[in-house]
Write a structure and sequence with these properties.
Layout lengths: L1 E8 L3 E7 L2 E6 L6 H11 L10 E7 L4 H9 L8 E8 L4 E6 L2 E3 L1 H9 L2 E3 H5 L5 H11 L3 H29 L1 H14 L6 H15 L1 H35 L4 H27 L4 H21 L3 H19 L1 H47 L6 E12 L2 E10 L6 E2 L5 H14 L8 E5 L7 H14 L4 E5 L3 H4 L4 E8 L5 E7 L1 H12 L5 H14 L5
Parallel strand pairs: 3-13, 3-14, 8-12, 12-13
Antiparallel strand pairs: 1-2, 1-4, 4-5, 5-6, 6-7, 9-10, 10-11, 14-15
Length: 539
């Protein structure tokens, strides 16, 4: 069950269209807007805009197939029924919006979902000349879905393995040159100190940089301390003389003596420190060499010492990878060879299974074409060799001739012949079509009235598996429908259209109108007979 709600549709304004299961015929006078109705449905599923007017179309799908659920889950959208697809077009801004399950989405995603929901007239006509679509239908007919999934998995794994092998081969071709470059770079890092050693070296280098200034300061400090020591020594001598005269000054003398001793001891410590500033020339050169090498690497690689450690780790890792590249290359070649063998085996099995069912499918298509008034038509489905792909090495072509003469590509057939071929294909593959909705906009326009009965029967049979919407001008087709809707053009200005659900006598009158005269009792009787032959449940 599908429900389309469209606002802004030209001539209709606002319309709600319920599409039930089974075969639904849509009729109405020429120019009543039947194709606009189908166009709004196509628009809701990502197709072209039926007119240039603003349009807001929402399609509600009561049941969600597992394929659609997987798409919704992959895009983190709710997968609970019903499925709600909405598309809005604003012509003034020349922009549109898409909503899936009331969540903003892309037009591309809408079309992806639509491929699993509906098949339109233009698409199904392309069945005639679409080798890829024909291949999938043949496989579904032959029950090869599991084999298709398996070979696709192997093909994808093989493609990944081939890409990896190509990358490894390119790297192996450059291996010697890269090893030379790496050997040079690794040599630059060979004497890079560890982090703790670099900290100590950095401190020594900083001290060396200020060594002259430090020596000058220490000399000046020593001179000042010497002057102070001399003055305090003279003061101590005088205080000792005073203490000899007054024993009460002995404590002061002793305290000053301690100060003089402390000052002399500190002076000796500074002298020893100054003596230690004289670094061994060989050690000084070594530290400077290390410092210059490290700073040069920092400039070369535009990083600090921590970054140099990371660069060295990367170089070592790449060197290790290059060392094991030949073994990896051999493993990749073995993997590709094994996957290729599996792929060829699966592809060969698919080819045999396909060739086994092609004659049967061809006979069934011919049988349906006979019902469609092409009794001498010849149809042959042939398998051709194709480049390896996700579903094997086969391509399916449909060869056809309406009068049994030399076969030609079916895409070169006339419009009426292609329409009948499309209907025959739909009839044969009705159980294999993965979409629940088929929309046919005047597919019977290119066939004659004597063929319309057969078209109606085929569409009725197709309705056993799908919701089939057929916009038709043929009463023979409409009479076979399970449900009948009519587009009515209302009198007045502006012109307005509305959708009418027909049942009972109203449907008899519409069939009679399509036959030529809804007021002629004889025509009305023919309409009733047509509806009776269709064994229709009106409504």
């Amino acid at each position: 069950m599908f429900t389309l709600k469209a606002r802004g549709l030209a001539y209709f304004g606002e319309v709600t269209w319920e599409i039930p299961e089974g075969f639904l015929a849509v009729t109405g006078e020429t120019g009543a807007g039947k194709s606009l109705l189908a166009g709004s449905l196509r628009f809701a599923l990502g197709g072209d805009l039926p007119t240039g007017d603003p349009l807001d179309a929402t399609l509600v799908v009561e049941e969600i197939s597992e394929g659609v659920r997987q798409i919704l889950r992959a895009h983190e959208l709710p997968d609970e029924a019903p499925l709600i697809l909405r598309r809005v077009w604003d012509p003034e801004r020349r922009r549109g919006r898409v909503f899936i399950q009331d969540t903003p989405a892309t037009l591309r995603l809408l079309r992806k979902i639509a491929d699993s929901l509906a098949l339109f007239h233009e698409q199904q006509e392309n069945l005639v000349g679409d080798p890829e679509k024909l291949l999938s239908l043949v496989d579904a007919y032959a029950g090869l879905e599991a084999e298709r999934r398996k070979i696709r998995e192997v093909y994808e794994a093989l493609s990944r393995a081939q890409r990896e092998l190509q990358t490894l081969r390119e790297r192996f071709a450059e291996k010697r040159l890269r090893e030379e470059v790496l050997a040079h770079e690794r040599a630059l890092f060979a004497e890079l100190p560890d982090p703790e050693a670099w900290k100590e070296i950095s401190r020594e280098l900083d001290r060396m940089e200020h060594l002259q200034e430090l020596a000058t300061l220490l000399r000046e400090t020593g001179s000042a301390m010497q002057s102070g020591t001399d003055a305090l020594t003279e003061a101590l001598r005088r205080l000792e003389e005073a203490a000899n005269l007054d024993p009460g000054l002995v404590p002061a003398r002793d305290e000053l003596a301690r100060v003089v001793d402390l000052l002399e001891e500190q002076k000796r410590d500074l002298e020893r420190y100054a003596d230690g500033l004289e670094m061994d020339e060989e050690e000084r050169v070594r530290l400077q060499t290390i410092g210059e090498r490290v700073r040069s690497l920092m400039l070369r690689y535009h990083t600090d010492f921590e970054g140099l450690l990371a660069v060295r780790e990367r170089l070592e890792k790449e060197w290790e990878e290059l060392s094991g590249l030949e073994a990896r290359l051999q493993e990749a070649e073995t993997r590709v060879e094994k996957l290729s063998g599996t792929y060829d085996r699966l592809a060969g099995g698919l080819t045999q299974a396909r060739e086994a069912v092609l004659p049967e499918i061809s006979r069934k298509i011919q049988a349906h074409l006979k019902k469609l008034r092409l009794p001498r038509a010849r149809v042959v489905l042939i398998r051709e060799e194709a480049p390896p792909g996700p579903f094997g090495k086969d391509r399916i072509h449909l060869l056809f001739h309406a009068h049994g003469d030399a076969l030609m590509d079916a895409s070169r057939a006339s419009g009426g012949e292609r329409a009948r071929l499309s209907l025959a294909l739909l009839a044969v593959f009705s159980g294999e079509l993965a979409v629940p909705l088929v929309v046919l906009d005047e597919i019977d326009a290119a066939v004659g009235g004597d063929t319309a009965h057969a078209v109606g029967e085929m569409l009725r049979d197709l309705g056993a598996h799908h919701s089939v919407v057929a916009i038709t001008h043929w009463p023979q087709v409409a009479a076979r429908a399970r449900t009948h809707h009519r587009v009515v053009k209302e009198e007045g200005k502006p012109v307005r259209m509305r959708l009418q659900v027909l049942s009972g006598e109203d449907r008899v009158v519409e069939i009679a109108r399509m036959l030529g005269d809804p007021e002629d009792p004889a025509v009305l009787q023919v309409a009733r007979e047509l509806l009776g032959k269709g064994e229709v449940r009106a409504g």
